[in-house]
Task: inverse folding
């Protein structure tokens, strides 16, 4: 007994995506509630990231475990079993190499711009301190 496999149509793909969005919204809501339990200040600051994190959790869990999404399962869509892992690995490797090369070019300019900001505005000399908001304070008193 053989099963007939046809390409998924637009309607199935849209229904699958809508079902996936329902589950992503449930995860986002749970993350938002957890964040609110931790602190209102953190909720105001990071709540916008909950949707992105929920999408990453939902889709990457299925992809990394070679599973269907719940929307695909609901509509009966399966992914082609073409082995593209070598091609994907090569693509990721090339993309990472390009990104690293870009960082090698951009980082000196970012450092230079940051140093210019320090000399013009004062404040933070190290980029990490600027990103974290740490302010330098002078402590006067006994010397060691």
Result:
């Amino acid at each position: 007994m053989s099963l007939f496999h046809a390409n998924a149509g637009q309607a199935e793909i849209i229904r699958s995506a809508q079902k996936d969005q329902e589950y992503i919204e449930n995860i986002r809501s749970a993350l938002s509630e957890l964040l609110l339990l931790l602190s209102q200040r953190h909720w105001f600051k990071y709540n916008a990231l909950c949707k992105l994190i929920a999408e990453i959790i939902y889709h990457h869990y299925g992809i990394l475990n070679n599973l269907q999404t719940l929307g695909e399962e609901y509509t009966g869509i399966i992914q082609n079993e073409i082995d593209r892992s070598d091609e994907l690995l090569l693509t990721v490797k090339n993309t990472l190499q390009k990104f690293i090369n870009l960082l090698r070019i951009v980082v000196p300019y970012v450092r230079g711009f940051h140093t210019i900001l320090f000399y013009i505005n004062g404040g933070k000399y190290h980029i990490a301190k600027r990103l974290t908001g740490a302010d330098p304070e002078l402590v006067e008193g006994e010397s060691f």
Summary: The two ends are 86 Å apart (CA to CA). Helices lie at 10-38, 40-46, 49-64, 70-75, 85-121, 127-132. The chain is about 70% helix and 0% strand.
